[in-house]
Amino acid sequence: MVTFRLAPAKLAPGRRVYAIGDVHGMARRLVAMHETIAADLAARPCAAALVLHIGDYIDRGPDSAGVLARLASGIGIGGAETVCLCGNHERMALPVLLGGDDEAAELWRMNGADATLRSWRIDPDSPRRKWAKAVPEEHLRFLKALRLFHREDGYLFVHAGLRPGVALADQDDEDLVWIREPFLSYTGNFGVVVVHGHTPTKAPVVRATRIGIDTGAVYGGPLTAAVLEEDRIGFLQV
């Protein structure tokens, strides 16, 4: 059962969004979260549900390939619509897999790529030009199709955040997937409440300007989903 509190923004009546935080290769946790969401939908049906993944599906954890396989399959969860956003880890990985340079490959490996490569049964020390050939085509198609943000009424969903003082149409793509400060400490008005991951915290963060849902699943914390409906917010964790 979800325990609700007053949310900092609103959704239209009949709309519900389940926003799932950073997965980082924790495939079993993702399956458990999808099952938990399906159970909640069965217990509390709604007219229009959306399951949104906030990015960072890969790296550091043990089964990035399993996470991508599940998400790339277009799995339906209780009849809900599904949206997947791009995180900074996907942003690092894709150019390398499509033939990026050694510097890009080294940056990715410094940020947990070896675990992802091994989940595809790729030796991280093998020639980089061979990596893409070992990655399932459906995984590459999924990575190429990821969106940078999604808007729902009073909420904007994005992996990392926004740069204060910059209109959404003018935001730099790198900020959308990488920014921390000055976004995290900003107390002004973005015009929307930003729902984001990227910066792990021990518990979800709910402020007037933003909702943080990365609770460090790959570091031993839970995988968290924010449940947003009308003027309420609650959380599911596995």
How would you sum up this structure, described in words?
The protein has one domain: Metallo-dependent phosphatases (Purple Acid Phosphatase, chain A, domain 2, 4-Layer Sandwich), CATH 3.60.21.10. The mean pLDDT is about 95. About 45% of the residues are buried. The chain has helices at about 25-45, 65-70, 90-95, 100-110, 115-120, 130-135, 135-145, 175-180; strands spanning about 5, 15-20, 50-55, 80-85, 150, 155-160, 195, 205, 210, 225-230, 230-235. The protein is of the alpha/beta class and about 240 residues long. A six-stranded mixed beta sheet has the order 1-11-10-2-3-4.
Terminal CA distance? 13 Å
Q: What is the CA-atom radius of gyration, in angstroms? A: 17 Å
Helix percentage: 25-40%
Helix count, per DSSP?
8
Mean pLDDT: 97
> For the largest beta sheet, what order do the strands appear in spatially?
1-11-10-2-3-4
Low-confidence stretches: none
Query: What is the architecture at the second tier of CATH?
Result: 4-Layer Sandwich
- Main pleated-sheet profile: 6 strands, mixed
Order of helices and strands: EEHEHEHHHHHEEHEEEEE
Q: What is the CATH top level name?
A: Alpha Beta
Counted up, domains total 1
The CATH superfamily title: Metallo-dependent phosphatases
Question: Approximately how much beta-strand content do the residues carry?
Answer: 15-25%
CATH topology: Purple Acid Phosphatase, chain A, domain 2
Shape: globular
* Number of distinct beta strands: 11
